[in-house]
Amino acid sequence: MTFGQWIGLLVLGVCLYILWEIRQVLLLVFLAVVLATALNCLQLRLQRWGLQRGRAIALSLSLTFLTVFGLFWIIIPPFLQEAQQLGVLIPKGLGRAEAWLNGMAHLLPGEGFDDRPIINRLMTQLGPFLEQIFNNFFALFSNTLAVLLNTLLVLVLTVMLVLDPQPYRRGFIRLFPAFYRSRIDTILTESEQALLAWLVGTGLNMVVIGLLSGLVLALLGVRLVLANAFLAGLLEAIPNIGPTLSVIPPMIIAVIDDPWRAVAVLIAYIVIQQLEQYLLVPVVMAKQVALLPAVTLVSQIVFAVFFGFLGLLLALPLVIVGQIWFTEIVLKDILDRWQPNPPPEVSTAPALPLPLPTPPAAAAPAASDAIPEDDSGEQ
């Protein structure tokens, strides 16, 4: 490698290291872009209804913040009260489950059976794992100031992007060569439409799942309906993992009253998820970029490991945007147009016959032969 290539490799490594160090800031910026995309679509719709751009922006921001604060004002106080009761009822539910499992222990073979309570054995085996989870959970919520600062940063960036998004868009497009900038603009538009479709679909799924979960829990007589329904709707934003986590609290609460009720809650949640997959998702997510289930799950695990809870939350939109850029640039613009050098062309036309040699011209007659002699002998 030449000296210039070594310098280029060194600069690339430094850039990757800097990006890795500021990965949390980049995720916050991406979250602000997602929120600004939704607000920009809302203000464009208001402009189509006849409002001026400034009034449309002000109205969209006001409606968004009023909706968020209204939901928090209506839902969060009762949710916190029920959450306190949830902290009291979960240990009772675990104790009831322990007693029920110990009551079923006589049905098992007696030889080699451990007389210790089943829950105690499980807690002994899962003790280090639960301690690690608790420490991570405590570390996640311990730094309140950092959470508030990150939230403030996202809100400020979102407002700035909504007020005047074009300079940021043009600045990003100018990072690419001039002949490719129109193509980048098209890809950005497609990414914006995919993000908007994901936001609308996810929002509708969260509302529907929350309402259905609350209705089912109310019919089954499970306590703390509002808290569990809100939790089910909120965790719907995290596919695969969220619905699995949302079923655990209502099952533990249901065990306190009757074990069969916990089984009924599990069956009801499974039915709700199946209805979502086969009825709601094909209608709501029709315009969303199709993702394979395995790709979605693996991406969530990878982003959660490397970027924490924020990476888990933004895994799906990141994969959607990444798939669009990979498909449009790598597959369509590079691989689909790449062809190996064609072999030299060989003419298949029939060979023409070689021209015959031209015969030599006849010699000119001599001068004496040019004048014929007279029969009389006179010249």
Q: What structural category characterises the helix and strand content?
A: mainly alpha
Q: How far is it from the N-terminal to the C-terminal residue, by CA?
A: 100 Å
Radius of gyration: 38 Å
**What is the general shape?**
globular
Succession of helices and strands: HHHHHHHHHHHHHH
The proportion of strand residues reads under 5%
Beta strand count:
0
Number of domains: 1
Helix content: over 70%
Low-confidence stretches: 110-116, 366-379
**Main sheet?**
none
Number of alpha- plus pi-helical segments: 14
Mean pLDDT: 76
What features would you describe in this structure?
By secondary structure, this protein is mainly alpha-helical. The chain has one domain. Helices cover 76% and strands 0% of the residues. It has 14 helices and no strands. The protein has helices at residues 3-21, 23-48, 53-103, 118-142, 144-163, 166-173, 181-220, 225-235, 241-246, 248-257, 259-284, 293-313, 315-335, 367-370. Helix 2 (23-48) crosses helix 3, helix 2 (23-48) packs across helix 7 (181-220) and helix 7 packs antiparallel against helix 8. The longest helix has 51 residues, at 53-103. Residues 110-116 and 366-379 have low confidence and may be disordered.
